[in-house]
């Protein structure tokens, strides 16, 4: 890969979009070209259906769809969107949610408790079967679920769900399990790193978190000091 791919991951309300913007700015200030994509793409065919499941707009809730079927909707959204990706066209590609989100969230829903998780199945589907590009690094922004829930409440209007929470965001136990699954995966796979974003239940300033990210990229050899 000529383009370095970095994903921004975390539970809902963990400040991903803010860090997505700050990292893009920091890379551009270092002279790099940066492309950005954010998932799901709610105005696309597959992403639009994901949005309807998440908002229960048609009466069908994402939490009631079997896990592999739900994972396929998310995966196809990325597959279609990345058809025009050209390796080397930009120095960096930043992805606000990617394959790791799919692997985590389709493994920790209430209806799937007690079942084997499908993390490796999702990785195989998206990377090997669909051929999506593998990231150089997944950044998991770790935030206390209680704090993250407050952040979600402050998001305001969003096209796919209005001013409320989607069916994943509204489940506190699910958000806690998602945090635990992200941590588990970070401990299993070397391409995923935990970025601690809080001190107790308080969030660190966004700029301080962004500085941590740059240090991680230097430590990983993705950036030079």
| Overall form | globular
Q: Count of DSSP helices?
A: 8
**CATH architecture designation:** 3-Layer(aba) Sandwich
State the domain count.
1
Strand elements, count: 7
Q: Would you give the CATH topology?
A: Rossmann fold
* SSE series: EHEHHEHHEHHEEEH
How does this structure look, described?
The structure is a single chain. The protein is α/β, with parallel strands linked by helices. The chain has a single domain (4-219), classed as P-loop containing nucleotide triphosphate hydrolases (Rossmann fold, 3-Layer(aba) Sandwich), CATH 3.40.50.300. Helices cover 44% and strands 14% of the residues. Strands 2-3-1-4-5 form a 5-stranded parallel β-sheet, sandwiched between helices. Strand 6 (198-199) and strand 7 form a beta hairpin. Helix 2 packs antiparallel against helix 3 (67-81) and helix 4 (99-105) runs antiparallel to helix 5. The radius of gyration is 17 Å and the shape is globular.
Write the layout of secondary structure elements.
Elements: E1 4-9, H1 16-29, E2 34-38, H2 45-55, H3 67-81, E3 92-96, H4 99-105, H5 119-129, E4 137-142, H6 145-153, H7 172-188, E5 192-196, E6 198-199, E7 202-203, H8 206-219
Parallel strand pairs: 1-3, 1-4, 2-3, 4-5
Antiparallel strand pairs: 6-7
Q: Could you write a compact summary of the structure shown?
A:
By secondary structure, this protein is an alpha/beta fold. The protein has helices at residues 16-29, 45-55, 67-81, 99-105, 119-129, 145-153, 172-188, 206-219, and strands spanning 4-9, 34-38, 92-96, 137-142, 192-196, 198-199, 202-203. Helix content is 44%, strand content 14%.
């Amino acid at each position: 890969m000529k383009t370095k791919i970095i994903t921004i991951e975390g539970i809902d309300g963990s400040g991903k979009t803010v860090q997505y913007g700050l990292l893009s700015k920091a890379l551009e200030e270092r002279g790099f070209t940066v492309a950005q994509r954010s998932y799901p793409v709610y105005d696309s065919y597959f992403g639009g259906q994901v949005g309807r499941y998440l908002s229960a707009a048609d009466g069908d809730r994402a939490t009631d769809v079997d896990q592999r079927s739900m994972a396929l909707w998310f995966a196809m959204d990325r597959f279609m969107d990345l058809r025009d990706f050209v390796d080397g066209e930009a120095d960096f590609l930043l992805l606000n949610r990617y394959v790791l989100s799919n692997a985590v969230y389709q493994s920790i829903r209430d209806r799937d408790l007690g079942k084997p998780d499908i993390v490796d199945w999702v990785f195989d589907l998206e990377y090997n079967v669909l051929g999506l590009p593998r990231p150089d690094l997944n950044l998991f922004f770790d935030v206390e679920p209680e704090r993250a829930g407050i952040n979600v409440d402050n998001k305001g209007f969003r096209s796919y769900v209005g001013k409320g929470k989607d069916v994943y965001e509204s489940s506190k136990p699910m958000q806690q399990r998602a945090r635990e699954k992200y941590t588990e995966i970070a401990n299993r796979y070397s391409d995923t790193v935990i970025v601690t974003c809080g001190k107790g239940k308080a969030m660190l300033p966004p700029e301080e978190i962004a500085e941590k990210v740059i240090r991680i990229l230097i430590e990983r050899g993705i950036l030079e000091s």
